[in-house]
Specification:
The protein has eleven helices and eight strands. Among the domains are: 1-87, no CATH class; 173-283, Chitinase A, domain 3 (Roll). The protein has helices at 3-12, 37-54, 57-87, 94-107, 112-121, 126-146, 155-164, 194-209, 214-221, 243-249, 286-315; strands at residues 26-30, 33-36, 175-184, 232-236, 261-263, 266-277, 280-283, 319-321.
Amino acid sequence: MSYFVRLLVFFVFLPVLAHAEVIDRVVAIVNDDLITLSELDLEGAPLFERIREQAPPEERAEALASARKDILANLIERKLIAQRAEGRGIEVSNEEVDMQYYRVIEQNNLSEEQFRSELVKAGITPEIYKENLRSQMIRQRLLGVEIRSKVVITNEQIEEYYNSKYGQQSDGNDGLHILQIGCVWGPGSKSASKEESRMRAEQLRGMVMAGENFKEIAKSYSDLPSAADGGDIGIFSRDELSPAMQEGLNGLRPGEVSMIIENGQSIQFFKLLSSKSGNVITQAPLETVREEIRALLMEQQLKDKFENWLVQLREISYVEEQL
């Protein structure tokens, strides 16, 4: 740490009077930058509030301490990335942040007032949300320069993955391997009405039909629990499916995307990866899933390389935690 920063830390937090009250303190030093307790408390406020409300009294202190350590680790990571980006001359303008902010609002089919209301419920101000967007955009650009440009997924890797894993049936049972995207309506949902839910689903299906990756769309926009797995709900026999799903999948061939259906309290559509009947397995043609496999392999490699890159970045940096 430079002499200037050490001097700054000393004078900023030295009480002017003997009875002065310290209202903030440093919880981490990252090279020549500081992270303060107020920053940490602001970043973790929604999580800390949930812990205070939901954790049993005897577990509350330990849960809060663990959460603070996790939040601090994230802040340190973001600071390291921001410093690296600055060193590489990578910037994101206010105009770019605003464009992304309104794009998110549009993609969620909300008015700006509704979106701000959702942020308030989550304990986040629009200003904090925009700064988080800026951090994400800077991170993506930096990773594009430092990591993504160095990852190459070959056709041979894609074909090997396809032949060994993609769309294969398990347990020898007949069934359909299905991907799913759904938009839910009702209180607490992104869509207030069935009509809004249908409109969102039609927009998402249009993105898929235009060539965007089904699994990525599901992860980002589907309201269903399967979103965490890229919409992959696994393999089902036809009689295990609801009548609405059976109708949506009727006549669908592997690799094809279904029309939109209403299923319970959501509007859904599907992609069929493979089907098995007797000893015959029909898989989605390679060309219909090539880009999905490429994205999956890219994500796996990027995750591994990013973790190694972050470890190396921390090793060459000065990081001192004081929590």
